[in-house]
Structure formats: C-alpha cells, structure tokens
Amino acid sequence: MDYRGFIDEQVERIKQAVGSGLAINALSGGVDSSVLTVLAHRALGDRCRTYFIDTALMREGEPEGVVKTFADIDVPVTLFDARRDFLGALRGLTDPEEKRCAITETFYKGVFGKLVRETGAQILLHGTILTDIEETVAGIKRQHNILSQLGIDPEKEYGYKVVEPLATLRKDGVREVGKLLGLPERVWNRIPFPGPALATRIVGEVTEEKLAIVRRATAIVEGELSDTKAFQYLAVLLSDRATGIRDGKREFGNMIAVRCIESRDARTATATRLPWEKLERICSAITDIPGVNRCLYDLTPKPPATVEYI
Ligand code: XMP
User: Which residues of 52-73 are buried (b: 16+ CB within 10 A; e: fewer)?
Assistant: First the structure.
C-alpha cells in the first residue's frame, strides 16, 4: 500500500470534512489515537483540539506522560478530568458488554457532548481501525469506538459528526503511517492498548481498589516485557479469588493473569514462549502486590480466546 498517498488523501478528506470549522479528538496515548492526532494536526493545525480524557482507567503516569510526549512534538493536548463520570457509570456493572456500553455512552454522550458544546466543534475525529469494525460487525465484541456500524447515528444521538480517517487500515498499516508522520518510534511502535483501557483488564465490576491492583500489575508486566518483541503484553485481574498464605496466615486473595502474544494485526494470536526466569520474576513481583497471591500465565491462542478479557 502507498502510505504516503494514504496520508495525503486523508489530510485532504479531514480538511474537506471540517471546512473552516473546528474538530476535536481524544488522544489515549495508544498507537491509533496517537497517529490520528498527528494526522489531524497536519490537516487542521490548531483547528483540531486534542483532549486526553482521564477516565480513571489509565495506566500509571499515563496522563502526564502522553501530554509531555505530544508537547515535545508541538501538539498541544488538554487534560480533561472525567474520572468521576466513568467510575460512576461503571459502578455495579459486571457484564462485559454492559461495561463497554457504559464507557461508550460516557465518552460520546457525556464527555464529548460537553466538549463539543464548549468548543463549538462540529466534527469528532476518531482513530477507529478496520479490525475494530470487523470484530464489532462480526458480533465478537463491541469495540467501544464503533458507532455507525452499530446503527448509532452520532449526529442524531450526540450532536456531532464522526470522521474515521484510519478506518481502512490494520495495526501494521497504522504503524507505517505513524512512522511516516514523524512520530517517535516509542509511540508508533508502542504495544496496542485498548480505548476502554484498564476496564478491559478487570473481569467483573470496576472499582478504584481493583484499578489500583491492575494498574500496578500492568506496570510490572510492561516493565519486564518491554525488551521482548512481542506484539502485546498485559495483566488482567480475575474476578475469582484463591486461597493462599501470607505471613504464615491463610489469605483468600486475588489472581492476576498475564498475557503476552505474538500477532501481526491482533486478528489471530499465539502466546509468546517467554523464558521461565522472566515468568518467575513477573510472578514474584505481582504476588508482592498486597491482596494478590496468584499469578497465572495465559497460553491460549486467539481464537478461541480474544486478546483482552472483556
Ligand atoms: P481482542 O480482545 O478483541 O483485541 O482480541 C484485539 C486488539 O484490539 C484491542 N482492543 C481494543 N482497542 N478499543 C480499542 O481501541 C477497544 O474497545 C478494544 N478492545 C480490544 C486489544 O488490546 C487488541 O490489541
């Protein structure tokens, strides 16, 4: 594929869609939204307002880290604190699709509805990619960023239009575009991270306490595995508990599943054959987290598993 041609085409498409108005977009720090952000700023300059929405579901140090990375390449990003909105919307929900739905509604109706009214933007630019669309349409899961493909008319429901410049690309193509747009390698080559963030890494109800556990486990796994060439690695907090021993006493503790996969585009995946010593180090650090007494390594390929647990 001619990725330079793709960039020119999409820059033109964004310019035409936005005209002399304003657009907004949300940057999560993941590969897709990072590439979209640079593409949008190339097309619109400061007529694209980029927000980092703090959903309370982000990784350790992520809000400040992402804002700084983009400040370094002269793309201003505004932090928007929506932690209470998301935690409130997720309270009491255990069903994976209901959790995804609550996140979608909070994002598009609550947060973006407010930002669109405040900024006067008419267009929301979205980093949806082809795999998100295909899996949603196939009924595998509702990717939180899919709207029109699910029969949701954003203009009618939320009051703004959505434009999806990356919708014909898969992850490998998005990385090529990011590279050509001059993003630092640590951004375009970053492991994928889902829009609903750590909510996809907690089986069952999302609470602040569980988020703190999975956030710590995520930092451990990412720190240990960043020197591998794996496609993606993650930690998941399971909803079951198991008996263990801590300080000579019985403890009914939490379990963390670690996943590390080889894949080209996330449509299929196999578990990475990690060195045993690395697994032992990860296990030891994870079971040092208070309340966690088991660490499991997930060997399941996709299919039958998906990459995330919800
Ligand atoms: P699954 O779990 O569907 O994940 O096998 C495939 C790839 O997509 C990422 N993923 C998402 N990305 N919004 C996103 O932007 C989502 O709702 C979402 N759900 C999963 C996942 O991390 C993996 O790379």
Answer: bbbbbbbbeebbeebbebbeee
Residue 16 belongs to what H/E stretch? helix 3-18
Atom number, ligand 1, closest to the C-alpha of residue 33:
15
Q: What is the DSSP letter of 192?
A: P
Cα 247 to ligand 1 centroid, rounded to whole Å: 38
* Ligand 1 pocket mutation pick from 34, 132, 171, 300 by most atoms within 8 angstroms of CB: 132
- Chain centroid to Cα 23, Å, comes to 21
Show pLDDT as tens, one digit a residue, over the chain (310 residues): 999 999 999 999 999 999 999 999 999 999 999 999 999 999 999 999 999 999 999 999 999 999 999 999 999 999 999 999 999 999 999 999 999 999 999 999 899 889 998 999 999 999 999 988 887 777 766 666 677 777 788 888 888 899 999 999 999 999 999 999 999 999 999 998 988 999 999 999 999 999 999 999 999 999 999 999 999 999 999 999 999 999 999 999 999 999 999 998 888 999 999 999 999 999 999 999 999 999 999 999 999 999 999 9
Question: Distance from the CA of 308 to the center of ligand 1, in angstroms?
Answer: 7
Is the CB–ligand 1 distance for residue 145 below 6 Å?
A: yes
- Is there an atom of ligand 1 within 6 Å of 128 CB? no
